[in-house]
Amino acid sequence: MTIIDDLEPLAVKWREQRIPILGLASAKWLLSLIEKEKPKRILEIGTAVGYSGTILASSGASLVTMDTDEKALTVAEETFAKFNVDAQIICEDAKEALKDISQLSLMPGEFDLIFIDHWKAKYLEVLEYCIKLSRKGTIIIADNIKNPKCLPFVAAITKDERLETTLYDVGDGLSMSIVK
Q1: For residue 25, what is the DSSP state?
Q2: How far is CA 123 from CA 1, 46, 150, 165, 168, in A?
Q3: Model confidence over 26-75: pLDDT tens digits?
């Protein structure tokens, strides 16, 4: 049994409600990475109902997660409580929240892993902030990179000399960039 198996009854309900959560193939890929890397501090941009956040924190990491949907965040709080996830939830637009790092008590280099899965057209807007919160070896993952709205982001991460990026044909597409 994995955390994905434990989450599956909720995931079925969420998918029926058309809540945008990771597809099963992407969830398994992400869990495999989490089990291998065992990050201690994770930033998630795009909480929804807490599905991916629960997977991200499944190896005992602390999670800082942000979203603008108050209703979904209420469900996320319940999900995190049910699965004992140590989560700091921020209800604010990611770009606005990340603008003032000190306001969030976040420091450059604080995160081992950053997961981007929010408004596809806004991925590029948060990239520089993600890099600022990284250190050498931080992993930045983005979901849904096959979406045409993510093309500027994909172009940026594949050309940025500060990143070593690999694209994965899993689910709706995933990218993994390691900060050099």
Answers
A1: H
A2: 33, 10, 7, 15, 17
A3: 999 999 999 999 999 999 999 999 999 999 999 999 999 999 999 999 99
| DSSP bridge partners of 167 | 175
SS3 state at 158:
helix
The pLDDT value given to residue 158? 98
Mean pLDDT score, 3-27: 94
pLDDT at residue number 97? 85
Q: Which two tokens stand for residue 16?
A: 């029926």
Give all strands of the β-sheet with 62-67 in edge-to-edge order.
86-91, 62-67, 41-45, 113-116, 139-143, 174-179, 163-168
DSSP states along 34-86: HHHH--SEEEEE--TTSHHHHHHTTTS-EEEEEES-HHHHHHHHHHHHHTT-E
Matching residue, tokens 């994909």 = 154
Q: How is residue 105 written in tokens?
A: 């008590």
CATH topology of domain 3-179: Rossmann fold (3.40.50)
The tens digit of pLDDT for each residue in 9-18 reads 999 999 999 9
